[in-house]
Amino acid sequence: MANSRGFFRALSWANQLLSYQRPSWQCTSCKVTRSAAFRTSRRYATTSGEASNKPYYVTTPIFYVNAAPHVGHFYTMVIGDVLKRWRTLTGDNKARLLTGTDEHGMKAASAAGIDTQTFCDQNCKTFKDLAHAANLDYTYFIRTTEHSHKDAVQYFWEMLQHRGYIYTAKHEGWYSISDETFYPQSQVHLSLDPATGRKRMVSIETGKEVEWSSETNYHFRLSAFQDRLLELYKTGFITPEHYAGDVVKSVSSGLSDLSISRPVQRLTWGIPVPGDSSQTIYVWLDALVNYLTGAGYPFPPGGGSHLGWPVDVHVVGKDIVRFHCVFWPAFLMALDLPLPRNVLVHGHWTMNREKMSKSTGNVVNPFFAIDRFGVDTMRFFLTFQGGLASDADYDNAHIIRDYKKYLQQGIGNIAHRTIGCAKGKLRTYILNATSGNSPAQSHDMAYQSVLEQLATKVADHMEKLNPRAAVQEIMAVILHTNKYFHNSAPWENPDQKQRVIYNVAESMRITGILLQPFMPNKAKEILDVFRVDSSKRSLSDANYGSDADYGESIEKRIIFPPLVVEE
Ligand code: MSP
Questions:
Q1: 497 and 373 fall within a common domain
Q2: Which of 280, 345, 414, 454 has its CA 20 to 30 A from that of 562?
Q3: What is the mean pLDDT of the segment spanning 285-296?
Q4: Where do the Methionyl/Valyl/Leucyl/Isoleucyl-tRNA synthetase anticodon-binding domain residues begin and end (predicted)?
Q5: Is 355 in the pocket of ligand 1 (CB under 6 A)?
Q6: Is the CB of 349 inside a 6 Å radius of any atom of ligand 1?
Q7: Structural domain of residue 34, as residue ranges?
């Protein structure tokens, strides 16, 4: 490999552009093949500014295909989907969700004894199946082995090089084979392997073993971005803030430049460095660019925003914060690309307090969990109990407990009793209440005000990227409704009955609307049972008294049946 000066002398940027032949380019989302002429004209394009009405753009991490999906992956997917669906609920029907698979750097294929692409195809399908089983309303499922992605990554590389952010150097450091990354001295420590009693160096962040390694490869001038990164963290880039502290501390303590290629002998399955087939592009640079590929990068001159760039929210687990909050914004800063607005970090699902992970083997198969409890129950449970700022321990008994308390004896019971108690007169009660002909007692008014505030409170949590607090707020109202219903005893108080029944019917309509992003199928069932018109199910309809037209000829239906299998 040439040194950086020699490299630039031998292959000037202009020459690279002329000599570098690409297959005709496909827009990843619309799959429209663009002409070569268009491709050439956009090669120098960067995005200047962004359209104010750009689509809201949410991403999940892309999943390694070297192991089967588990509940932790399912959780990440669901959080992304809830954010996207919430945005749709607010009336934005252009919101986008990108998910997909990270297929480069595979070592598992040779272990499995099959051709690498076949291995990736098979395992990618499992993640796609999970996205469907999880009822993800994704806009595009990206694979890093797609041609369009390879084009985007190589273009991104060339732009970094063109701007002088890439150089070659000998690199020595602590390298983790399983994380495919070098760690600085400050990020590793000595640890005892519990299985063998052997002392070894491991990454503090991932716990993976590292070894001292020396090689010549390409580097990115990460150190040039320390000040700008620290400025970025002041804008609330990282949510919850809890995670920002460690990032700020680590960036403040100094940034080393980043090795961004590996000798091809070490990393064969990946994207070659443009103009140097002896080196393969570092898997994390490759992987992070997927978010740009998903937005149609390289962008046409002055474009980019029509497919959502910049990202509004990257959803990531806490183990990949450094990649998304340090490397990724620095890469984008180097190209003057608009930066993502938020990285939403979540904690891990654990089993007996140990991280659920493929390497430990303590994983829960999400397909089995969905089969057993139903997709909406799982989506509810994961968002309700899953930790953002902290970890959460997974336990089937907790799923059963929460199902019974909030769904079956909560929503299901309220819906059932409301319809039963109304004895066919719900429509009349609704008309009377909405036309002011239904007297309310003070306790009715107090309860009414809880319903009046609910949508605003939930919207506020979602605005702050806290789906857990949002669904907890809804569930608190469900418990409150059960109490209100019970204490009001409408069956014993004919004078007050109309108002009470109307109020609890409103609770079903309002919570049904607000639960749509969390439990799309069950929320639809609730709204269908109460005959809420499909045109009146958006966030602006989740206000007390705002719909006088539902409740016609309703019939009892069991929405949350008893679970077939109990612990
Ligand atoms: N391929 C990288 C991400 C590249 S994004 C440009 C990767 N893949 S992964 O398959 O290992 O993890 C994908 C996501 O699943 C990460 O956000 C990770 O945090 C999350 N989870 C993996 N195990 C988890 C738990 N036990 N609990 C919750 N989420 C976890 O990293």
A1: no
A2: 454
A3: 98
A4: 449-547
A5: yes
A6: yes
A7: 12-45+396-541
Residue 108 falls inside a structural domain: yes
Report which secondary-structure segment, H or E, holds 141: strand 140-143
Decide if 293 contacts 152 (C-beta within 8 A).
Answer: yes
* Site to substitute for ligand 1 among 70, 74, 102, 360, most atoms within 8 A of C-beta: 102
If one residue of 66, 348, 365, 382 were mutated to test the ligand 1 pocket, choosing by the most ligand atoms within 8 A of its CB, it would be 348
Q: Please tell me the pTM assigned to this model.
A: 0.88
Which residue has 């496909």 as its token pair? 26
- Beta carbon of 503 within 6 Å of any ligand 1 atom: no
Ligand 1 atom with least separation from CA of 363? 26
Among candidate residues 340, 358, 393, the one where a domain is terminated: 393
Residue 6 falls inside a structural domain = no
Is the pLDDT at 111 greater than 70? The verdict is no
Q: Which of 178, 165, 180, 175 is nearest to 270 (CA)?
A: 180
Residue 310 lies in a domain: yes
Q: Kindly report the CATH number assigned to the domain that includes residue 338.
A: 3.40.50.620
Task: Answer whether residue 562 is part of any domain.
Answer: no
Nearest-atom number in ligand 1 for the CA of 317 is 19
Express each pLDDT in 19-58 by its tens digit.
323 333 233 333 223 333 223 232 323 333 444 689 999 9
> Are 260 and 364 members of one domain?
yes
Residue minimizing CA distance to atom 12 of ligand 1: 63
Tokens describing residue 306: 């029509």
**Same domain as 381, residue 461:** no
Report the distance separating Cα 215 and Cα 235, nearest Å: 37
Angle between helices 426-434 and 494-514 (to 10 degrees): 90
Beta-bridge partners for 239: 344
Same domain, 388 and 510: no
User: Could you say which of 372, 393, 414 is where a domain stops?
Assistant: 393
Half-sphere exposure of 150 (CA within 13 A, CB side): 17
Helices (H), 338-395: 366-373, 375-385
- Number of domains, the chain: 2
Task: Give CA angle at 122 (116, 123), nearest 5°.
Answer: 90
- Residue-wise pLDDT for 401-430, tens only, equals 999 999 999 999 999 999 999 999 999 999
H/E stretch holding 406: none
Query: Residues 383, 510: one domain?
Result: no
316 and 366 part of one domain: yes
Same domain, 314 and 366: yes
Phi (first) and psi of residue 348, to 5 degrees:
-105, 155
Are 226 and 256 in contact by the 8 Å Cβ rule? The answer is: no
> What distances in angstroms separate CA 230 from CA 227, 237, 241, 245, 251, one per listed residue?
5, 10, 14, 11, 7
Contact between 99 and 131 (Cβ < 8 Å): yes
Give me the numbers of helices (H) and strands (E) for the chain, helices first please. Answer: 22, 18
Q: Are residues 168 and 274 in the same domain?
A: yes
3-class state of residue 455 by DSSP = helix
